[in-house]
Amino acid sequence: MSLGPAALPKWEKIRVQRAEAEYDSVKKDPRIAYGLWCVVGILGGHRFYLGDTARSIAMLFTFGGLGVWTLLDVFFIARRVRTVNRTRRAAIMSRYNILEAPQ
């Protein structure tokens, strides 16, 4: 039997709201990642935004793999943003001891 949000005690609801607020403050937006890709993609700006520091530095010093990595990244940015957000959400929820249903 699963308890819905309405069945949670008030202190549990507050804990879940705090976790959600923390996640909202750190989640990444794909529109910003694509915007950075358009403006500074060849220098790895979108990778810096997503926290991929090693790849960002590699792109910075090779000018996006001479443009090849930059062109390929347009197909992978949305998936990378989802992965980063999923990882960050899982870390925050586990820190608050909140179990989520598998998706």
Automatic annotation (TrEMBL):
Q: What is its main location?
A: membrane
What the entry lists under Pfam families is as follows:
TM2
Name of this protein: TM2 domain-containing protein
Please report the record's description of how this protein sits within the membrane: Multi-pass membrane protein
Q: Which classification does the entry list for the species?
A: Bacteria, Bacillati, Actinomycetota, Actinomycetes, Micromonosporales
Q: Which UniProt keywords apply?
A: Membrane, Transmembrane, Transmembrane helix
| PANTHER family in the record | BETA-AMYLOID BINDING PROTEIN-RELATED, TM2 DOMAIN-CONTAINING PROTEIN DDB_G0277895-RELATED
Q: Which residues form the TM2 domain?
A: 27-75
Keyword Glycoprotein, does the record have it? no
The record's subcellular location field reads:
Membrane
Q: Where are the transmembrane segments?
A: 56-78
* Family annotation (InterPro entries): TM2, TM2D1-3-like
